Inverse folding.
């Protein structure tokens, strides 16, 4: 498998703080790599180093088998970046904004025109060409931001939390767009706080904490790390301590917590855990409002690995 | 090309300030020319004088009265104390001359008779005093000799009638040069407030943190990109300046076709270049459009007031002008002010002007160096 990006022993120090600590990773051609981590985990610093926006203390970064540096314009030509903050001109309409950012890469007017139309179609902004950013909703503005970043059809795309504060319709539209980009052969590095997005679109996930990679693999591989098979949540009022202790003794139960009338039970493995629990509640005549079972999330993995929530 | 094309589109959204400042410039220039004192000949003004004569109106006394009559508007009122005070208070009379009893006799006998006066102490009263003083001094000089009264009067009158002819040899078109200086001094404000503001507004869009970041990561060479921006700004500044110059030809007229006009144009061109570099510096430092408006107003108004764009330099306190030395506007306006008093524009005469322009270019160089340092630092986040 060819690598689009190769990072070896990347370290970025700010005086006494190590923002990125000896980080090595490879991004395979055509994959969507999710970069997960709480605030301050080093995601943005890593991306800024890859894009040569930041000097790094040591290590090496190769993109498309070439050493990356601020003046590597031939490499930059193949990179598209969508920053978390919207980067557009307030004075230009949707079409002109995409034209400008695409024009930084593509000189040929005719090609550019086609690329702009493709980008508009990708993010579903065909009907907003003449709109100015101030006239767009938050979701549409984010879509414009993405169109500006990918209009030149780059081989490698960095998407930094592109769905933050976006309505569900725009979010779905953006995720569909990312899928289309992958189908077109782009390699995507995707950072986000939303784990469900990562689970939907990422082929591989890297979890960062304190500038280090603490886990990497597919979402299924990562979930195995949490050593949890199933989570069951029961909404029950005033559950006695006696019952909690009895539930803890049940088969396959790993942990039991009861907080704000919510009983959370994690199971290490096993089948029919939900049915067994429901039988127990019925037997003890414990009334509950709702009960549901779910598979462990990446947040559980993160919680298991670091002892804190991803959004802390 | 895309940078220039986008620059024009953004510029189009910021055209209002430049229109506004152009209108202000034209309005004030036209207003100034309308109110300009266009008097080119002088006419002697005559003060209103009242003579209260206690002597007989003969001989030297009569001669004195005749002289005063000829050189002032003689006022006749009832010579009561109240009337006289009222006339002075209401400025019906500027100067009252009391000729004492036996003045003639005492004068001829060299007893130095005292002529009392009352005045409103304004400039017309000063004129009357000068007139009386002139007569008495002349009369006293001739009275030192042993002349007959008739000869004395004749000599006094001969001397007083002598006039000095003054021929103005200067060919300076003072009125038009004054107008040109006013126009170009005021242009200082328009360039600083209008051109710099527009350039900074446009730059604030291009240099806004996120747009700048996206540009840096693009395949556009960042130095090239900055050069395109500088070139675009330069072209805008040049055309804005050209527009102001075209207006100067309409408003100021013929003087713009002379060597004086050429120096005004050269000086404003250099100042415009300096303003461009200053705009680039401010545009690189500031990205907040609201703060920009305030800061540019402070710079434009502050420089214009401190350096004499609104109030002529000769009326400004020395301390203010000393402080103004650190501003490019001072050297620009100083050149305009010096230029209007230069008769022949040869190298020797315009040398100080060229030195001033050199100082403005030095300011530009400093601004360019600082901008480069800031721009290079901004390229890297850390």
């Amino acid at each position: 498998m060819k690598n689009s990006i190769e990072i070896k022993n990347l370290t970025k120090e700010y005086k006494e703080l190590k923002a990125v600590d000896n980080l090595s990773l490879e991004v395979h051609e055509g994959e969507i790599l999710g970069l997960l981590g709480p605030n301050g985990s080093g995601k943005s610093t890593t991306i800024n180093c890859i894009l040569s926006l930041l000097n790094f203390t040591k290590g090496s970064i190769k993109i498309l088998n070439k050493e990356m540096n601020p003046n590597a314009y031939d490499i930059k030509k193949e990179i598209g970046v969508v920053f978390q903050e919207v980067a557009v001109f307030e004075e230009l309409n949707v079409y002109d904004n995409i034209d400008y950012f695409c024009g930084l890469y593509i000189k040929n007017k005719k090609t550019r025109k086609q690329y702009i139309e493709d980008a508009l179609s990708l993010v579903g902004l065909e009907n907003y060409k003449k709109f100015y950013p101030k006239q767009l909703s938050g979701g549409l503005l984010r879509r414009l931001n993405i169109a500006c970043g990918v209009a030149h059809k780059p081989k490698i795309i960095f998407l930094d939390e592109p769905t933050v504060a976006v309505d569900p319709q725009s979010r779905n539209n953006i995720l569909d767009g990312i899928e289309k980009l992958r189908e077109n052969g782009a390699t995507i590095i995707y950072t986000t706080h939303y784990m469900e997005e990562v689970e939907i679109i990422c082929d591989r996930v890297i979890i960062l904490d304190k500038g280090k990679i603490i886990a990497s693999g597919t979402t299924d591989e990562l979930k195995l790390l949490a050593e949890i098979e199933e989570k069951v949540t029961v909404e029950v009022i005033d559950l006695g301590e006696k019952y909690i202790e009895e539930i803890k003794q049940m088969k396959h139960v790993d942990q039991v917590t009861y907080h704000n009338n919510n009983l959370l039970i994690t199971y290490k493995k096993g089948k029919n855990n939900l049915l067994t629990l429901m039988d127990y509640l019925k037997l003890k005549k414990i009334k509950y409002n709702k009960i549901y079972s779910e598979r462990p999330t990446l947040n559980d993995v993160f919680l298991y690995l670091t002892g804190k929530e991803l959004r802390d | 090309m895309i940078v220039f094309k986008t620059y024009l589109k953004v510029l189009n959204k910021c055209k209002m300030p430049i229109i506004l400042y152009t209108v202000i410039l034209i309005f004030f220039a036209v207003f100034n020319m309308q109110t300009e004192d266009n008097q080119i000949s002088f006419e002697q003004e005559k003060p209103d004088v009242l003579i209260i004569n206690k002597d007989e109106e003969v001989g030297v006394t009569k001669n004195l009265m005749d002289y005063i009559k000829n050189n002032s508007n003689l006022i006749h009122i009832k010579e009561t104390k109240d009337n006289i005070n009222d006339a002075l208070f209401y400025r019906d009379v500027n100067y009252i001359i009391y000729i004492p009893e036996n003045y003639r006799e005492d004068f001829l006998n060299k007893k130095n008779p005292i002529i009392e006066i009352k005045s409103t102490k304004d400039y017309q009263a000063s004129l009357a005093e000068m007139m009386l003083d002139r007569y008495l001094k002349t009369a006293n000089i001739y009275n030192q000799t042993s002349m007959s009264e008739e000869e004395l009067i004749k000599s006094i009158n001969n001397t007083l009638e002598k006039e000095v002819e003054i021929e103005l040899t200067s060919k300076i078109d003072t009125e038009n040069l004054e107008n040109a200086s006013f126009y170009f001094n005021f242009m200082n404000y328009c360039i600083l407030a209008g051109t710099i503001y527009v350039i900074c507004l446009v730059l604030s869009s291009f240099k806004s943190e996120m747009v700048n970041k996206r540009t840096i990561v693009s395949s556009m060479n960042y130095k090239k990109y900055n050069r395109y921006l500088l070139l675009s700004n330069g072209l805008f500044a040049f055309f804005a300046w050209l527009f102001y110059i075209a207006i100067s030809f309409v408003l100021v007229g013929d003087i713009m076709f002379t060597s004086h006009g050429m120096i005004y144009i050269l000086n404003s061109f250099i100042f415009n270049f300096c303003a461009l570099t200053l705009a680039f510096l401010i545009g690189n430092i500031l990205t907040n459009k609201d703060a920009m408006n305030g800061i540019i107003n402070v710079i434009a108004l502050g420089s214009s007031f401190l350096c004499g764009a609104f109030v002529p330099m000769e009326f400004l306190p020395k301390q203010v002008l000393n402080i103004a030395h650190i501003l490019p506007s001072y050297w620009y306006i100083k050149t305009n002010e010096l230029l209007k008093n230069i008769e022949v524009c040869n190298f020797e005469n315009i040398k100080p002007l060229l030195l001033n322009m050199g100082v403005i270019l030095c300011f530009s160089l400093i601004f360019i160096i600082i901008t480069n340092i800031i721009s290079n630092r901004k390229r890297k986040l850390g």
Summary: Chain A has two domains: 3-224, 227-295.
